[in-house]
UniProtKB/TrEMBL annotation:
GO molecular function, one term: guanosine-3',5'-bis(diphosphate) 3'-diphosphatase activity
Record key words, sorted: Hydrolase
UniProt xrefs under SMART domains: HDc
Name of the molecule in the record: Guanosine-3',5'-bis(diphosphate) 3'-pyrophosphohydrolase MESH1
Source taxon at top rank: Eukaryota
Lineage: Eukaryota, Fungi, Fungi incertae sedis, Chytridiomycota, Chytridiomycota incertae sedis
Free-text function comment from the UniProt entry: ppGpp hydrolyzing enzyme involved in starvation response.
Family the entry assigns: Belongs to the MESH1 family.
InterPro entries (UniProt xref): HD/PDEase_dom, MESH1
Domain HD/PDEase: residue ranges: 24-132
Length: 174
């Protein structure tokens, strides 16, 4: 479990100059820490590798962190879970979004858990406030897209899945 503290410190350093897209400019690190909290507290997940991967899940996608660095610091399993949760930013956005839907069902159970908690955090954020520059249409499209991704991650945690069911019932208009 102390490895989890090391991961939190690592992620906090990597994300230290980043802010969320909300109007308040919340520190980015609130997101990965919150994703790990959702996994543990709301999903009942106490697997250390999954919780560490949750904390680290955006470090490669959004900072200069490499998978080699993660493997060195935290081992193969954590690095692989993060890899499964990392979009290829060299691809056009439409391809990245499509690939998340297509690849979701093929991910490991631990990667699916991180994906479910990541989407819960982001969807709650969208219910709370609108990111800078987002139109209502873009927000609505994110809910529909996120549902397609998380539908492919089902079967790993009934509690997280029912939280998502409620969020979609509240926010996706037929
Ligand atoms: N809802 C919300 N999202 C914010 C905010 N600030 C940053 N984000 C991040 O923005 C991403 C979603 O925005 P998009 O425009 O769809 O994706 P993009 O950053 O990949 O282009 C999420 O990345 P991600 O975690 O990698 O997840 P995802 O791309 O798999 O959804 C989310 O964490 C905020 O204030 N509210
Ligand atoms: Mn994320």
């Amino acid at each position: 479990m102390l490895r989890l503290l090391t991961a939190i410190d690592f992620a906090a350093n990597k994300h230290r100059q980043q802010r969320r897209k909300d109007p308040e400019g919340t520190p980015y690190i609130n997101h990965p820490i919150g994703v790990a909290r959702i996994l543990y507290e709301e999903g009942g997940v106490d697997d250390t590798a999954a919780l560490m991967a949750a904390v680290l899940h955006d470090t490669v996608e959004d900072t200069d962190t490499t998978f080699d660095e993660l493997t060195q610091a935290f081992g193969d399993e954590v690095s692989r879970i993060v890899a499964e949760c990392t979009d290829d930013k060299t691809l056009p956005k439409a391809d990245r979004k499509r690939l998340q839907i297509e690849n979701a069902p093929h991910k490991s159970d631990k990667a699916k858990l991180v994906k479910l908690a990541d989407k819960i955090y982001n969807l709650r954020d969208l219910q709370r406030t609108t990111p800078k520059g987002w139109t209502p249409e873009r927000v609505a499209e994110y809910f529909v897209w996120a549902k397609r991704v998380t539908d492919g991650c089902r079967g790993v945690n009934a509690r997280l899945e029912s939280i998502l069911d409620r969020i979609y019932a509240e926010s996706i208009k037929a």
